[in-house]
Structures are given as C-alpha cells and as structure tokens.
Amino acid sequence: MAYKQKSDKTRAARKPKAGKTIYGIIGMGRFGLALAQELHAADADLIIVDKDEEKINLARELTENAFIVRNLEKKTLLDAGMGNCDVAGGGLGGEFAGAVVGIGEHIDTSILTTLTLVSMGIPKVIAKATSTEHGLILEKLGAEVVYPERDMAIRLAHRLETSQALDFVQLSEKINISKFALPAQAVGQTVVEVNLRNRFGLNIIAIENGGVVEEAVRPDYIFRTGDILYLSGSKEGFNKLAAWVRG
Questions:
Q1: Is 27 in contact with 16 (CB distance < 8 Å)?
Q2: What per-residue confidence (pLDDT) applies to 89?
Q3: Which of the listed residues 9, 11, 202, 203 has the most CB atoms within 10 Å of its CB?
Q4: Is 68 within 8 Å of 6 (Cβ atoms)?
C-alpha cells in the first residue's frame, strides 16, 4: 500500500491546543474511524492520516489535522504533525497519548509504519494486529499490540455462553473483566453467602442497580433483583460461574 501526499501537500499541520491530549491515528478503516470518533467525543486533539480522500473528509469533521497521504515515510509523518506526539502534550502542556497504527490489511505497511513511529522517538506506539505472528513482530519493534477482531470475538463468545454476561473484556490471559447480570439464585443472599471469590475466584469490583453504582461493596450487602455485577477474575472462573448459572 503505497502512500503519496496529494492535495494536502502544502497544508501545514495546525499545532494542537495547549492542555489537550494528543493522539495520532494512521489508517481510517472501521477500527481507526471508531477510535477517532470516541476520542473526539472525549475532547482529545487528533492528528489523522489516510490515503483515502473520502475517509479524510469524514475525519475532518473530527479534527482540522486530517491529511491525505500516500507515503508513510518519516518526513511525511512529520509534515502531518505526528512529531507533536513525541513528548508530553507535544510540549504544549497536554497529557501525552501517542500514535495508533490502524493499518491491518497490509501487514508490510503496518510493520514499516510502526517501525518509523518508534524510530521517531514516540514513546507510546499502539498497533493493530490481524494475527498472532503479525502481533509478535509489532511487539519486537516496541509497539503495544491490540487485536480488535479477536477481542470482539472473545466478548461475543462470553455473551453467547451465558445470557447473564452483558460484556466481557480480556485484559490478559489471567485477568478478565465482566459486566454480569445477577443470577436469580443469588437474589436475597449476601456477598458472603454467595461467596464468588472462594467458589469461582472472582472479585466484585462494583454493583450497579437502577443507574446507581456502588463501588465499596460490603460483605453483608444483600443482592437485589436488577443488580449488575462488575467482576474480575480468570476465564476459568467465569466459565465456572456460567455453569453455576445454567444449573
């Protein structure tokens, strides 16, 4: 995937606003666009590059710093303003965020772009991987790797395994977070009586009911109908909990 700068060649990157978090995003596929929209909603300052003019036109609804480029070499990325991500807040007092490589379908371009960003001295480079092998290479280059398709499949699988699982996030092989609807058999019992920690190795992070979240969960808390549990633990523990729910 060759990149060459088009109509944006003479357009200089606007400096990010002082005090705002700066994110550089390369590649505006489904992953890159969704990420940009969420970060924009969080009031972050964005620098976006992609080869597709239509995608960049969409990106310009989110930031003035959106550029059509067809060459992802160091000079091109610097011209687009990616250098503003190399220190905290681009030297403008904002919180450092880093650069995200959202290129997935062209592995060679993904690898070379990640290497370029790391060599530019950007201390946090996050790269999307489409396979384990792709991810291992990106990790060796110094990038933090994400697997959007795999992570979404894991979340969906856990939701399908039990109707109680409302959401699931795998933080590592041993640490997972789940948003779990309280099983009917736990209603009226206390946290100690249900004993999720000893029975399944799961910890209650918080309990939500009617939009109210209780973070400091007491051992004598009595579970109520409509409770939503935020749990952490191993995948094995969640599988045991799902089996208990199914009876």
A1: no
A2: 36
A3: 202
A4: yes
**Amino acid making up residue 107:** I
Helical H segments across the chain, by residue range: 30-41, 53-59, 74-79, 107-119, 132-140, 148-161, 191-194, 196-200, 235-246
Q: C-alpha angle with apex 45: 23 to 102, nearest 5 degrees? A: 35
Q: What is the pLDDT of residue 14?
A: 53
Residue type, 51: K
Helix, coil or strand: residue 178:
strand
Q: Amino acid identity of 168?
A: F
Greater pLDDT, 178 or 84: 178
For 125, the token pair is 């480079």
Q: Which two tokens stand for residue 101?
A: 């490589």
**Which pLDDT belongs to residue 101?**
93
132-140 and 107-119 helices cross at what angle (nearest 10)? 20
User: How much is the mean pLDDT over the chain?
Assistant: 80
Q: Which residues pair with 23 in a beta bridge?
A: 46, 98
Residue 93 scores a pLDDT above 50: no
Q: How far apart are CA 117 and CA 83, in angstroms?
A: 9
Residues 6+ apart with CB under 8 A from 153: none
Rounded to 5°, angle at Cα 41 from 52 and 25: 35
Give yes or no for a contact between 128 and 104, defined as CB atoms under 8 angstroms apart: yes
Given a contact cutoff of 8 angstroms between Cβ atoms, the answer to whether 131 and 118 are in contact is: no
Q: What is the pTM of this model?
A: 0.60
CA–CA dist 96, 100 (Å, integer): 13
